[in-house]
Amino acid sequence: MDEIVATLTLDAYKGKIVVILAGYDQEMNGLMAVNTGLSSRFPDEIVFENMKPARCLELLSKELKKDGVSVAELDNPESSQYAEMSGLIAFLSALPSWGNARDMMTLSKQMVRTAFKNTSVDNNGAMLLSAADVISCVSGMLRDRRERSSNVPLNPEQRNLQFMQQILQPDAPTAPIMHTSSAVKAKAAPPKAAEATQTPAAEEADDPRDDGVPDSVWRQLCADKKAAEEAARRVEEDLRVMEQELREAEAREKEEKKRKLAKQIAAKQAKDAAERDAVQRQLEEQRLKEIHAQAERQRKAAQLAAKKQREEEERRKEAMVQAKLRDMGVCEAGFRWVKQADGYRCTAGGHWISNAQLGI
């Protein structure tokens, strides 16, 4: 990285080179921290915001329709199931591993596989997928991403606040401008008796109601608020269950590590014992080989000594025979005598004396 900074400062490249660094926020911040002068070399920053939950669900619906899968709740933003799905997507998008459209493509493929397992089709021949199956797929991805995430999660208060902000106002249509004076006036004015009989029970909520808001719109708004609160409650419950499952998984992992370590120690001890036995066998084999080699050496030494003794005796006897032959004077020339089968003959060949004559 220092080399890159040094290169960017060269006059030869000034105004002639464009360098683009792309990556996730955490990695880019770490990269900028490597060199103190690096940040000033990249003055322009383009931040790609995450897709809103409503846009994600719209993309998911389009991808499912391409594969002939229909989910009625994805096209009905006013349904409670849509609010729950939107809340799950909002929480997914808060994770560091969120992939926007890429994750929507992944979810679409999972849902298509789920739809193939069902046999229900609509009037147009499209495969039907229930909102419960969609919520199950999204919840599964959320659970998996949380388990794989290595970042420190937010504390419950921060997480709930962030989550509620995202799911209670997901791409909400622009509300009409509220004038403070009229709102105060509407709150202060006593309700008429005739209107009181027609006011829905949901109007008892803490939020003030603007003048001129129809009952149907107000009822739908209250229903949506309740659906969002229910979705938040469900997600919180899912998170509680997943956190409990995570703690149990961590406990199982620790226990498994202990068992694995015990097995490794036992295996090492067994291996050491086996190695000791093998070494002991090798030493015993070597000792037996040495004993055998020593016995063989002693046997050969005895054979050599006996052979030398016999040879020495033979030479002594031969010397006595040669001396006796010379004393007998049979060969006047005095040639040496050669031992044959039954006696001796002089090397000239003309004289012969038998063993009987020599007395041997």
Automatic annotation (TrEMBL):
Domain of life of the organism encoding this protein: Eukaryota
Region of interest: Disordered: 180-216, 293-315
GO molecular function: ATP hydrolysis activity
Coiled-coil annotated residue ranges, if any: none
Gene3D superfamilies: P-loop containing nucleotide triphosphate hydrolases (3.40.50.300)
InterPro entries assigned to the protein according to its UniProt record, in alphabetical order: CbxX/CfxQ_RuBisCO_ESX, P-loop_NTPase
Positions with biased composition (Low complexity): 183-202
Protein name, as recorded: Uncharacterized protein
Organism: Hericium alpestre
